[in-house]
């Protein structure tokens, strides 16, 4: 099985974090504080990078993500964010 060379990592800006937590279907599963989320996500990012995979941070902005979900008929949860990030990375690989 081939491991991807690049993966998209849904990334939240601190100024959007509260709005995202409120608007995402699974927002209540995210840590209540941005810094807690950021520290845990950066640790996971480093682990993936150590395995030789490039990690591309894909910004998740509330309005843009909601519009993409509507167009793609995707859910506004973790699986939808992962799909969105993968699509952005795939598109940038072609560009």
Q: Can you give a write-up of this model?
A:
The chain has 95 residues and is α+β, with helices and mostly antiparallel strands. The chain has helices at residues 17-23, 34-50, 62-72, 78-94; strands spanning 6-11, 54-59. Strands 1-2 form a two-stranded parallel sheet. The longest helix is centred in the middle third of the chain and has 17 residues, at 34-50. The chain is globular, with a radius of gyration of 13 Å.
Brief descriptors of the model:
95 residues, two-stranded parallel ribbon, single chain, 4 helices, alpha+beta
User: Which secondary-structure class do the elements indicate?
Assistant: alpha+beta
Shape: globular
Strand content: 5-15%
Largest sheet: 2 strands, parallel
Helix-strand topology string? EHHEHH
Q: Strand order, main sheet: write it out.
A: 1-2
Summarize the amount of helix as a percent range.
40-55%
- Report the end-to-end length measured between terminal Cα atoms: 26 Å
Low-confidence segments: none
Number of helices: 4
CA radius of gyration is 13 Å
Mean pLDDT: 92
Write down how many β-strands occur, each being a DSSP E stretch of 2 or more residues.
Answer: 2
Fold blueprint:
Elements: E1 6-11, H1 17-23, H2 34-50, E2 54-59, H3 62-72, H4 78-94
Parallel strand pairs: 1-2
How would you sum up this structure in a few lines?
With 95 residues, the protein is α+β, with helices and mostly antiparallel strands. It contains four helices and two strands.
């Amino acid at each position: 099985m081939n491991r991807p060379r690049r993966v998209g990592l849904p990334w939240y800006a601190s100024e959007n974090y509260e709005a995202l937590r409120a608007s995402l279907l699974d927002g209540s599963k995210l840590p209540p504080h941005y810094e807690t989320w950021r520290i845990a996500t950066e640790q996971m990012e480093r682990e993936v990078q150590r395995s030789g995979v490039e990690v591309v941070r894909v910004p998740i902005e509330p309005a843009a993500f909601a519009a993409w979900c509507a167009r793609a008929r995707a859910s506004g949860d973790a699986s939808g964010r992962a799909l969105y990030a993968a699509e952005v990375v795939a598109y940038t690989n072609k560009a």
